[in-house]
Amino acid sequence: GQVHYDIDVPHDAPTMRGFAGLLHTGLNGATPTAIAATPDDLCQQLGLQKALGALRVRGLTALLRRMKRNARDLASPV
Using CA atoms, how far apart are residues 30 and 57, in angstroms rounded to an integer? Predict the structure, then answer.
């Protein structure tokens, strides 16, 4: 009933490691339903676009979408 993630971000990307860690902390161990309910615009809701460049926000958004897709795939009957 829970989804567990292992996120690997290069050591030479400390900012992305930090924000990926936030996603990991928030979603690791959650149910697929809870993960799917996470808003796609989470980065914008948190105001990260003000602190990060557009490329980093796109990267984090892509990571979130991948996490959500994986959770949906796990929840779907095969």
Answer: 23
- How far is 49 from 41, CA to CA, in rounded Å? 11
Give the separation between CA 4 and CA 75, rounded to whole angstroms. Answer: 13
- Residues 16, 9 contacting (CB under 8 angstroms): yes
Instruction: Let me know: does 67 contact 35? Beta carbons within 8 Å.
Output: yes
Indicate yes or no: pTM above 0.70.
yes
pLDDT for 12-64, tens place per residue? 988 889 889 999 999 999 999 999 999 999 888 988 888 888 888 898 999 99
22 contacts 11 by C-beta, under 8 angstroms:
no
